[in-house]
Specification:
There is one protein chain. This protein has nine helices and six strands. It is mainly alpha-helical. It has two domains: 122 residues, Multidrug efflux transporter AcrB TolC docking domain, DN and DC subdomains (2-Layer Sandwich); 131 residues, no CATH class. The chain has a two-stranded antiparallel sheet with strand order 1-2. It has a two-stranded antiparallel sheet with strand order 3-4. Strands 5-6 form a two-stranded antiparallel ribbon.
Length: 257
Amino acid sequence: MSDIAAAISRQSINLPAGSLETRNQDVLIRFVDERRTVQAFEALIVVGNRSGAEIRLGDIARITDQFELAENKIIFNGQRAAILKISKTKAEDVLVIGEAVKAFVETAQETAPQGVRFTLTTDRFSIVDDRLNLLIKNGWQGFILVAMTLWLFFSLRFAFWVVMGLPVSFLGTIFFMPLFGYSLNMITMVGLLIAIGLLMDDAIVISENIATHLKKGKSALQAAIDGTQEVGDWCFILVNDNLVHVWATGFFRRRYR
């Protein structure tokens, strides 16, 4: 039996042979000579000699196509199924990959044999897309609400310079993220969502205090310096307090999940 198993292993091979890393993608290389059908295994030569005599596996064994373990069988919506898992490299955009997968499924479904269906079961790109849309929505809503609130109580010029801190901060963050090895993903987008609330909250508090110093007759520069110094320490403490709570919540959820 061991000789027969060794003969099958030598003539039915599917092994990784390395990979090629390019600028845009990683190409995986495999040596594929694996017998996958009953007929292919029946034709496999177990013993042969120089005279040309051969004993094939189908001559000495009855070969059937079935699962080795019943739990390996995949059932989807009550029907036999197979799973195709698509992964991306670190340099690739999940949204671009998601659109390509959708297009592939639609094209494959048009040419698939009767009775074969292609279905997307788990797509992380839709979650990333929803989070990105939420980030953009919260950003422009916060921009408009803060601008209108400050314009009602202060001058238009004052409100303009305060709310401009939001786009400037985000554009600066996105510019410097690649320099520190970060990208837009689920974790960084959560951080940006939290930063929107913290930035707008602190902007309103500091700007209101600066306006108070302006009413006392101070120059714009001196009012900005004194107003920021007066509440800056408290804003710094509150920001770090929120970050500690967020970090602690994520740590305990990950630790005890």
